[in-house]
Amino acid sequence: MSASTAVLKAESRLFAREPGSLFWVLAFPSLLLLAIGLIPAYRQADPSLGGNRVIDVYVPSVVLVALITASVLSMPGALTTYRERGILRRMRTTPARPAHLLIAQLVLHAVAAMLGAVLAIVAGRVVWAVALPEQLLAYGITLLLATLAGLATGAVITALARTAKAAQAIGLAVFFPSMFAAGIYVPIQVLPDTVRRIIELLPFGAAAQALNQAASGSWPAWTHLAVLALWTVVLMGVAARWFRWE
């Protein structure tokens, strides 16, 4: 327990000294939401969105940006760098173990993603008067499941990438489709039904739909929650199978 705590404290200090990760995970989602709200048409009620404003339906999507960035870019880059430099191998000669480092990274990026999500919600409320989620419990459960699915995705990238550059390349290849599935480029509500049904089978697509439902006061469809849980189990299994310390 003392070794794992020491690793977590050390990794927390190192993470706090990474301005790039702090910006993209904590600040960028809120800044993106503020920029979207600067478009006047996005602050007006839209009949095609059930009377909601575009900025209202964008908040759940922007919340997922923090999670996507932390999961598929930040965490794989950190872990593959440690592996590439032989740090994981050398840790086996100390009381700490590579597993402690892996757990510390998962915890740190989960907390950072959650904090980035909360900051985006607060920014939307304070600046653009976006209503807070009506189903807070459902919103929290969905965000937790989305975090687990996102970290599982990052774990697979870490397992497959041999170097930090490879992790960055794979992460970017996953990042942009994930942003589309989350509804950043085009709101999910305006997509054709066929495209929307396909997106709902992806982890961040299901998460975006579930968060929108919870925000509007409805309990998320169980199919969306099941998709998130299934992706988490499958991806964690793949990561455990292919992950190497060296």
From TrEMBL:
InterPro entries: ABC-2_transporter, ABC2_TM, ABC2_TM_bact-type, ABC_2_transport
Entry keywords, A to Z: Antibiotic resistance, Cell membrane, Membrane, Transmembrane, Transmembrane helix, Transport
Gene Ontology molecular-function annotations: ABC-type transporter activity
GO cellular component terms attached to this protein's record: ATP-binding cassette (ABC) transporter complex
Protein localization: Cell membrane; Membrane
Membrane-spanning intervals of the chain: 21-42, 62-82, 102-124, 136-157, 169-188, 221-243
Primary site of residence: membrane
Pfam family name, one: ABC2_membrane
A Gene Ontology biological process term: response to antibiotic
Membrane topology: Multi-pass membrane protein
Family per record: Belongs to the ABC-2 integral membrane protein family.
Cross-referenced PANTHER family: DOXORUBICIN RESISTANCE ABC TRANSPORTER PERMEASE PROTEIN DRRC-RELATED, TRANSPORT PERMEASE PROTEIN
Protein name (database record): Transport permease protein
